Amino acid sequence: YETTLIPVLESARESRLPLNPSIMRDGFKKFPEVFTPYIKYCVDQKTCTDYMKARYADNDLFKTYVVWAESQSQCKRLKLTDLLVKPMQRITKYSLLLQAILRKTEEDKQRRALLEMIASVDKFVTSVNATLKHRHDQERLASIITKIESYDAVEAPNDESLKYIQEYNTNFDLRAPMPGCNSGHSRSLIMQSVLK
Q1: Under a CB-based contact definition with an 8 Å cutoff, are residues 20 and 11 in contact?
Q2: Which of 55-59, 66-70, 98-102, 163-167 shows the lowest mean pLDDT across its residues?
Q3: Whole-angstrom distance between the N-terminal and C-terminal Cα of the chain?
């Protein structure tokens, strides 16, 4: 805010001209770098909300504190769960704000700068969404793992073979790296149904 948006406002106030969005370009080019902590926040947001709900249900002191905090004017009548989701909503608003500025901008140089900024923000939002989707896929795979029963297709001829078969059955993990692929590739669920 201080390094990207304030200079635009100060420039407009001094020159008495409309806002020059080109001044913001350098700041928005660094958008992914500056907002990297948002990725972890967004990924862990559900865990945080679940933790907060659990503490709210079983800890009277925490419940009293939350009720008091939500009654303060700074919360603007929002619940703690609403406040926890705000940063996730904020990320998408930057692109919408820049697109609104673009619609009102006529100068080509400023329009090109705005298109670069929008591309930078959209690329970051896409990466956050991809990370969230990956996390969701991993959670679904973990859920499926708990439902898979061991299957003994053949009877083990001896105890040593039985040991290896049981080890394979107990260590079966859909989230494990895929053999023959680099570590960047991960499994994703395409379809889930009962096989009968």
Answers
A1: yes
A2: 163-167
A3: 58
CB 152 within 8 A of CB 168: no
CB 2 within 8 A of CB 8: no
pLDDT in tens, 64-109: 999 999 999 998 888 988 888 888 888 889 899 899 989 988 889 9
**What are 167's two structure tokens?**
């080890």
Answer left, alpha or beta for residue 16, where phi above 0 means left and psi between -120 and 50 means alpha: left
The whole-model pTM stands at: 0.72
Three-point CA angle 117, 92, 97, nearest 5°:
55
Which tokens sit at 58?
A: 């079983």
Residue in 56, 60, 78 with CA at minimum distance from that of residue 69: 78
Q: Tell me the torsion sign for CA atoms 16, 18, 19, 20.
A: negative
The tokens for 128 are: 């956050």
Which position has the token pair 């079966």? Answer: 172
How is residue 153 written in tokens?
Answer: 């297709």
